[in-house]
Amino acid sequence: MQLSREALLNAYRAMKTIREFEERLHVEIQTGEIAGFTHLYCGQEAVAVGVCEHLGTRDRIVSTHRGHGHCLAKGCDVEGMMKEIWGSREGLCKGKGGSMHIADADKGMLGANGIVGAGAPIAVGAALASRANGPGPDGLDVAIAFSGDGACNQGTTFEAMNLAVVTQAPCIFVFENNHYSEHTGFSYAVGTDRDIASRAEAFGMKAWRADGTDFFAVHETMREVLAHVRGGGGPAAVEFDTERFFGHFEGDPQRYRGPGEIDRIRAERDCLTRFRAAVTAAGLLEHSDIDALDTQVMDTIEAAVSAARAAARPTAEDVLADVYISY
Amino acid sequence: MTKMMYRDAVLSTIMEEMARDPDVVVLGEDVVGGMGTAGGPEAIGGIWSTSTGLYDRFGPGRVIDTPISESAIVGAAAGLALSGKRPVAELMFADFIGVCLDQLWNQIAKFRYMFGGKSRCPAVIRMAYGAGFNAAAQHSQSVHQILTGMPGLKVVMPATPADVKGLLRTAIRDDDPVIFLEHKALYATSGDVPDDPDFMIPFGHARLCRAGGDVTIVSTGLLLGMCEAAADRLAAEGIGCDVIDLRTTSPLDEETILDSVEVTGRLVVVDEAPPRCGLAADLRALVAEKAFSSLKAPPLQVTPPHTPIPFARELESAYLPSVDKIEDAVRRVLAWR
Amino acid sequence: MPDIRPFCMPKWGIEMTEGTLAEWKLEEGAAFSRGQLLCLIETAKITNEVEAEWDGVLARVLVPAGGDPQPVGALLAVLAEPGASAQDVDAFIAGFRPADASVAARGAAAPASAPAPAAEPAAPRPLLTNRAISPEARKLAEQSGLDIEPIEGSGRNGRITLQDVQQALRAPARPALQGALAAPEEDHAVFASPLARRLAALHGIALGSITGTGPRGRISKADVLALVPQPGSAPVIGTAPFVPVPNPPTVVPFDRVRKVVAQRLTQAKQEIPHFYLRTSARLDELLALRKTANLVLGSKATINDYLVRATALALAQHGDVNVQVHGDSVHRFAHADIAIAVASPKGLVTPIVRQADRQGIAAIAQATRALIDKAQAGKLAYEDMDGGTFSISNLGMFGVEEFAAIINPPQAAILAVGAAARRPCERADGSVGFETRLALTLSVDHRAIDGAAGAAFLATLKDLLETPERLFA
Q1: Does residue C446 have an active-site annotation?
Q2: Strand C352-353 with B190-193, pairing
Q3: SUPFAM superfamilies annotated for this entry (chain C) (predicted)?
């Protein structure tokens, strides 16, 4: 199904925003200005955007420690996120969450999560809420559990998949297989012969597989998945084969990478390059359109970083706020 | 007032709250019971009979029978709560927090704070705790000492049917995550319960079960009955005990404890959890810090020993606090010279 | 060799040199246990009960009750474990040497029954035990000769702690019990702390009308106490018919302290030619000043503390009042040591504020507070009460308007202080106003102090109280 010019521009802008957000963080982190652990999503942008372009705010997602891309794709404010990562009290979570714990319930973003595999049961809960609410004009609202190939080995993920099947909850398990669980290879850590999607199938749900570096493949696959789930077909799973351009965390020496691996995946498997090539070759967009977006995005990120630097710092009194609604 | 059992107070409160608020949903293992069997739904109706009839009345959308998957149960409760529902999840045995601790501790407890106060997680996690049924080390524990130590959770331990009613209603209507601990040895006990459909007991409001000016006894749950029995025995000798039921260990009613110790100068904390790093140690430290000048004797604790819970009848009764042990502790604080 | 120990005249306080054995509480040859009362020993200041520190037998009494005063360190009796023979005891007495050389010197001039010199009496005996015991606990057990075997150690694996030893050394506790009370009925409609409920029930206050200021908006005791009517409302008079009942006396024999007080005061009132000087001082300035001074100094000085200060300054100016009478001579002192009369559980005691003329008001306040606390706990030591150049007795807190006190020998004067009261007075313009006045009565020993000297002292004191800035000079 052909996307409109506007939809294409939006998709590119979203992916490019994630890319520049991450590339900029990669630079800024070297200066020591940003505290704590940061896990960059760079390379996987087509998945977050290809999935979230289909979603409304009533659809909910649960993310991972590598969550910036999901947050941005689901509509979280760029500046609010940048401020959060800088630890400002003006951040999306008032400086209490940081990179690993960004959420914006109003946007249907239930939270990034520092615990690998913890998100899947929460997504099932969100899906059960949707099931209890019943379908709207476009069918059921869905909940999406983003997981990596690491989380697919956690018992919580298995429990969540089984519970979703048992309760026929409108939940979609999106496995982004970037071939690394932290510093360990997929071929070692995932014991299933073929892939992750087959595990989901074993739990009794329909599963799809697609190239996660091809925005159009992701987008088209998700159209089918969503039609199935929104229509009351029960939970589903999708495995996207994708790439992680940076290490597990910022500062990871990445000694596990093969020779020239990063250069190769950047050259051959960059979803942005592939998007640009596809749309210009098909005559859907001009290079100049995309260049203009690049400039816009750079400006947005530059402005967000400046704002984060200048934003108010939290104070010791803020430590005590927001823990209970009443106590 | 209506006389009812502790377990019926649980069930009727859930029933009433589900009828009042369509956002209240129930989930847990066997909360329906019999799903996928020849007996069919409601063949069991919850192993504690605290969910009997909910499925028939409110249907599968709001009464969710789950597989044995505690992480998924608590995680789903979290997701439901973040999505605007008021889930009441049941863990069957409190000991099972071991298999879902991450969801309780790293997820539910932390959402509100970690996400800058914007996320609400109004989940109630009910669980049956406590010894007295020879259920041995993995089905008898009192876990409040672990959960009370987790910022972000509220922890409720009702001791009477009336308190179940008032506190569970408060828990369901509360906008924070609440751990609701039901003592299994209390399920079959009866008591008067107010009929007011909005009867609620605020959290952090201890109950004074016995009054006396000589020793303060603080406890929760099943052990309160023993504390009251000990206080009654001692009263016959002219020894008066304030027996305080904390009702909630988080928030803690510091004021009631300190008010009492300022008069008595002597404290005995009676707790079913092991002795180290627990409620009893915490309260004794509180009093040592904030009522030091009132103390006439070192505060004592009556707890089980620092061992797992044994199985055999003789062993379990030797393990648990008893009326005699409580009485002995009261005499020991009074004998301090 | 059986365990034989000397029982010597104790030394309570730096100035005690001798004491009188007032009464033996058991016969020679009688057995005693730890904590049992052995005897009463009287000094110039107090009568003390002496308790046994271990279990044994009063093997030999060397100094009978009621005899002459004995020097500190003098051997009064020999204590031994049961089974010690008379020969063992004789040998012990023969070999006994008092610890203090000066006592030994005095002992030479003492009666024949006085001890002969011997080895060290109270060397701690090493504790031989396999029990786990903390170093400090072991030290104390050794010093006190305590048998640690019966102690149930409270430490890990039964280790004996210092606290366990201290507990074992104390007499059994007999706490005053309050007994059970009626637990307040819980009213679920109102959110109030249990104490607030009790207070409300006690004072008949309806909780429903109160807005709670306690934790989580709860009604706390402070909220209820704010509504408690101040005392002074009329008592309810019973309407039951009057029935007379027998009214027999409860006979309470004088204890030792009361005996000493009775004897001393009778002697003072009979032997000392008292005369009395009365005046009153305007207190308004002092009351006003005290408020701000206490704020500034951060102290809680009472009117009595200011009186001590003023009296001390007046005594410094009038050295002829700051005296003691000893037989045919008058002792004068450079500084004023002021005894304050305090009611204690053991009766009237008079601890001393030392060199009050050299101490500021805050220091005096602190000193008197400490002395009063000790007195009320029954823990005043001999040195807290030894000496004194002047006494103050204040009954103002009971509303006594004025009274005259009996001099406490060897002191030569005592000031009796009544209540501060509002009195009408003539103002400078001739109109009538009110002022706060304090009645002062000085009892004076005419043997040492003449009327004019006493009056001059009293005038200075009155002047200091009425111009209180000088109390801070």
Answers
A1: yes
A2: unpaired
A3: CoA-dependent acyltransferases, Peripheral subunit-binding domain of 2-oxo acid dehydrogenase complex, Single hybrid motif
pLDDT category of residue B162 using cuts at 50, 70 and 90: very high
Cβ–Cβ gap C179/B211 under 8 Å: no
Question: B241 and B135 share a domain?
Answer: no
Residue A195 has which token pair?
A: 């892939």
Question: Is A86:A96 a contact under the CB 8 Å cutoff?
Answer: no
Homologous superfamily of the A5-278+289-320 domain (CATH): Thiamin diphosphate (ThDP)-binding fold, Pyr/PP domains (3.40.50.970)
- pLDDT at C240 (0 to 100): 56
Q: Where are the beta strands (DSSP E) in C73-228?
A: 75-80, 180-181
Amino acid, single-letter form, for residue C4: I
Find residues 99-158 of chain B whose CB sits inside 8 Å of chain C. Answer: none
Domain that holds residue C355: 273-472
Listed as ranges, residues in chain C with pLDDT below 50 are: 101, 103-121, 234-238
**Pairwise CB contact (< 8 Å): C186 & B241:** no
CB contact (8 A) between residue B64 and residue A128: yes
Give the angle C18-C20-C24 at the CA atoms, nearest 5°: 140
Q: Which residues of B touch C163 (CB under 8 A)?
A: 298
Contact A115 B27 (CB under 8 A): no
Predicted model pTM: 0.69
Give the number of other CB atoms < 10 A from CB of residue A277.
11
The minimal CB distance from A163 to the residues B66, B103, B115 is found for B66
Model pLDDT for residues B280-304, shown as the tens digit of each residue: 999 999 999 999 999 999 999 999 9
* Closest CB to A94 among B62, B111, B116: B116
Its ipTM equals 0.91
Residue C37 forms part of a structural domain: yes
Q: C404-439: string of b/e by CB count within 10 Å (b at 16+)?
A: ebbbbbbbbbbbbbbbbbeeeeeeeeeeeeeebbbb
Q: How many helices (H) and strands (E) does chain C have?
A: 12, 19
Nearest to A159 among B69, B106, B204 (CB): B69
Q: Tell me whether residue C212 is in a domain.
A: no
Whole-number pLDDT of residue C111: 43
pLDDT in tens, C145-155: 888 988 989 98
